[in-house]
Structures are given as structure tokens and as C-alpha cells.
Amino acid sequence: MSAENISKKRDVHHVSRGWNLILNLIAGIFAFLCVFPFIFVVIISLTDEKTLARDGYRILPAQWSLEAYRFVMQSGDTLLRSYGVTILVTVLGTIISLIMISLYAYAISRKSFRYRRFFSIFAILTMLFNGGIIPTYMVVTQLLDLKDTIWAMILPLAMNAFYIMILRTFYITSVPDAIIESGKIDGAGEFYAFLRIVLPLSLPGLATIGLFSTLGYWNDWFNALLYIDNPNLVPLQSMLMRIESSIQFIQQNSQNSAVSMAALQSIPQDTSRMAMVVLATLPIIFAYPFFQRYFVQGLTVGGVKE
Questions:
Q1: In whole angstroms, what separates CA 59 from the centre of its chain?
Q2: pLDDT in tens, 231-246
Q3: Which of 73, 191, 201, 240 is most buried per CB count within 10 Å?
Q4: Record's family (predicted)?
Q5: pTM score, two decimals?
Q6: Highest mean pLDDT: which of 2-16, 92-106, 118-132, 223-237?
Q7: Which fold has domain 76-267?
Q8: What is the rounded CA–CA span in Å between residue 97 and residue 266?
Q9: What's the Cα-to-Cα distance from 208 to each of 12, 170, 211, rounded to whole Å?
């Protein structure tokens, strides 16, 4: 390629300083619009309840208050225990989910696997049909005997057919067969090739599935509602939902009891709801940079030499 052609190619992809400033400004505004709702939730959670009732929702409230967080923190050890249970369930569940999904997706992505079509259809069928809540409850509590155990919140979410299909497609499109075959020529077995060759090249896909699984486990409260009666095993989302239910119960019965009316007036209703959202969301927000690091790392690992 001549120097003139190289110069023309650079001119085509060159963006002037003015356009670069405009595009960065548009991207910054869009990023701010994405982040602002959560910032506004934090502001509301720090607003005095009486000020909120009088002035409504404002970016700069007339009076700040930590009463909502004090109300939520009154549970003390229960809140910390719920955080610990949720973190344990999320970490263990994500690891188990990644192991099971990555192995299943890799098997059905290989053309040499004789039963790949059968297991692909088997996974897709679970996306279309399920046994329902009652049979699932019977399997978990009676057949597997997982009621009031940490595994009742982990195993039901460990396999996801949709994630399997995503990772299967990623293996097919992003992991060349030539790399796997070259490893086998050098003496690598199927499992060794998967660990040493496929997984390093699949970090973007694994990070995506890991993020989905982490969000699913962190936000799950339904399994705890079904299977957990032990107060020491209640996860964060379920505990916050119980606090919200208690507030609603007091609201509904406030007219029937002077005591309930006094309790209702002492509860920061709207701000406490926002405080619950903040407490439940902040840890998962801090997890995003770690997944982002693996996204970038995975995109720069390996390739087929020509």
C-alpha cells in the first residue's frame, strides 16, 4: 500500500477536534442520564421525611437526614447477617453456575460431540416448558431435602438454558477450531484444552454470563420466600421485603389503633424505601468494575496466527 493510500485511509477515520468535542459531550450527557436516576434515589433517601412530604422530590432538599438509614439499620446484626448470606449465596452460586454452564455449552458447541443436537434441544425445551411452582417445591423440599439450607437458594438458579445458548454461540463464533486442534496435536486432551485454551479465550463471554448470574442471585428473594424459614438464613432482598411488608401492614391498620398511628408517624416511609434500594444496589454496583476488567482482558487474549 502506497503512502498516499495510507494517508487517505487515515483521513477517512480522522475526526476533527470540534466533532470529537461534540461526540464526547453527547456521550457524557447520555452517561449522566443513565446514572442520574440512582443519584436521585440516593438524594431522596437522605432527605428528611417531613421535608419530602412538604416540598416533594427535589434535587437539593431543604433539610437532609439519615433517619431512613437509622430505621433500616435498627435491625443491627440481622442486616449484617442478611448481607453475609446474600454474599455467600451470590459467590457460591455464580461459581457453580459458571462451571456448569461453561461445561455444558462447550460440549454442545463441539461438532465432534455425537449427542450435541439432543442436549441442545433438551436445553431449549426447558426454556419453553417447566414443571411449575408446586412440582419444583416438592422436588426441592421432599426429594432433595434442601428446605432451610443455603443450597435451596443456589441450586434452583445454577443452570439457565438461555445463558447456555449465549455461551454456546460465543464458543462457536469466537473460539476457532484451529486453536483447539493445534492443542490436541501437541498432546492436550479435551479437558486440558478446555481449561488452557478455550477458557482464556472465552473470558468476555464468561464475564457476561457471570454478571448475569451475579445479578440473578443478588436480586433473588423468591426462593428464600419459598424455602427459608430460618431467620439466620434470610438473604438481604428477602429481609428488605419483610421490612417493606411491615411498613405496609402498619399503614393499612393505622386507623384502627392509636399505637399504630404513632408508629406510622415515626417511620420514614418514602425515604426508607429509597434507603433499602441504595443498600441493596450499592454492592452490586461495585462489582461492575471487576467484570469490566475481565471484558477488556478477554478481548486481548490469544488469536489464530496466519
A1: 28
A2: 888 888 888 777 777 6
A3: 240
A4: Belongs to the binding-protein-dependent transport system permease family.
A5: 0.76
A6: 92-106
A7: MetI-like fold (1.10.3720)
A8: 43
A9: 33, 11, 5
